[in-house]
Amino acid sequence: xxxxxxxxxxxxxxxxxxxxxxxxxEDAMAGNWPAACGxxxxxxxxxxxxxxxxxxxxxxxxxxxxxxxxxxxxxxxxAVSALPQRDWRLASLPEGHDPEELALGxxxxxxxxxxxxxxxxARPRLVCPDGVDADRLLAIAAGEFLTRDLIxxxxxxxxxxxxxxxxxxxxxxxxxxxxxxxxxxxxxSNLPLIHAVGRAAEQAPxxxxxxxxxxxxxxxxxxxxxxxxxxxxxIKPPSSMGLMKKDMGGAATVLGLLKxxxxxxxxxxxRLRVLIPAVENSIAGNAFRPGDVLGSRKGLTVxxxxxxxxxxxxxxDALTMGAEENPDLMISYATLTGAARVxxxxxxxxxxxxxxxxxxxxxxxAMQAGDPLxxxxxxxxxxxxxxxxxxxxxxxxxxxxxxxxxxxxxxxRFAEGAGRYVHLDIYGWQPxxxxxxxxxxxxxxxxxxxxxxxxxxx
Length: 458
Fold this sequence. Notes:
Residues 306-313 form the Cytosol aminopeptidase domain. The chain is an alpha/beta fold and 458 residues long. It has helices at 33-36, 77-80, 99-108, 134-152, 160-174, 185-188, 192-198, 238-241, 249-263, 311-323, 338-344, 356-368, 403-414, 446-456, and strands at residues 13-18, 46-50, 56-62, 87-92, 125-126, 177-182, 206-212, 218-223, 225-229, 271-281, 293-295, 301-303, 329-334, 350-353, 374-376, 393-394, 421-425, 429-430, 440-441.
């Protein structure tokens, strides 16, 4: 869906943003109307201001108590669904509130997934505040909308073939090259884990490989593209399978991030590579089995102790391929473990990184971008948990403890060769509507990395 700011115009209506119980700006008083309406500036509270002829001449919007400002991101998105369909501008903003964050919240609040339900009603537009880079915010929102659309589309219309088509369209739009290795060609190209996980599905497994730029530091992004996950022969219960259209959330996020990098101009200073193993983990007579020992591109053998731990298998081959070029930085995104959600909930993905300086930059950028991440350790003593008796690695250690950490340790084995490696264990789903984030697919960690890239790769 298109995303836009309103043009600068005398016809735009003012919004006065006020904190709770603060004095209302004199030019927004409209007599005693706000007091008569009970407006106090509570979080998300809206008061439309009438003109003498009965039309709307402006609005007051509540930012809540300053001490609780950190409780809610993108608060101005609340106004998008409440204001009349007009063009609006920020007339006042209390000190300490970031106009860029508010404007991005407004843009994100315009999102609606309409593929199966007709067009969404037109939304009010905002004039981009002075001093805010409108083009950058529009590029960020467009990348986020791509990620959401891809995740929200069910597997009936977003299998490996359709994910490839979406990647091809994006590559064409931004002038990138793309190569795709499909089906039995995966074995010839020494990508056996991707083939093993996806071979039972109706749509053939594939590796999508996108490149953009030919000079500068190299950034490689790897995104898990499991378009639907039944759990394989270790089949999931219905309660766990219902959201598995989102198991390609890592792929959707790296494509959204690629769109942001290209749209903001950051890609012009980099060599970018995006690798997406796109598969469906299905059940059939040729599905890979519990107890199988599989070979990998790296030469390490993997004992399959649970076919529902398939994401780390397809990522392993893609990470190995990415590391062979020795990129300056390689980042993987994956909806990998429920353990991450138990530890940190749906809003805060953990990230793993051995390099303290890199981790600090990412943590700072995550806070600045309103895209929270939390560092977790590659805990060396747990390495023995992923080392079984009959193979080099175990894809699903027993015991159920430290599941996100052991998954990250597994992936790190295949990322050797990259200058620095970062892994994000994302959820990719908004379980309940929040400002700027309707229930459904959501990008996580893309805006944080976008903000960090200039400092990570200079």
